[in-house]
Write a structure and sequence with these properties.
mainly alpha, about 0% strand, globular
Length: about 120
Amino acid sequence: MLKLSPIPFSTTSLCIFVITLLFSCSESNEVPENILQPEKMVAVLTDFQIAESALTIIQQNGMDVEIYKNVFYEKIFMKHKINKQDYINSMNYYSVNLKLLDKIYEEVITELNKRQISLSASN
């Protein structure tokens, strides 16, 4: 029978290990300053979804999407006073913080639904 020898842990090293484990597993709700904050990300992604819908309609009408795509995206960046790199950095951040990204997309869907209802009511 194989006998395992106990691993020597001091109380201090065990406490440090447990504290490190707790902090590494906890999620921080604070988004770094150089990343678009969730509210702004919702607004940007909402506009991107609307632009993508418009691009789909343009493509269905046989027009060249690439001409409009860059114009739409640049207008969105200008509207929100960001640049392409801000957007890319933020998407990269949220892509590894999936709970935050999921919450952001839930809010995007809610905002798009509100706009759809508003447009339907005005027709």
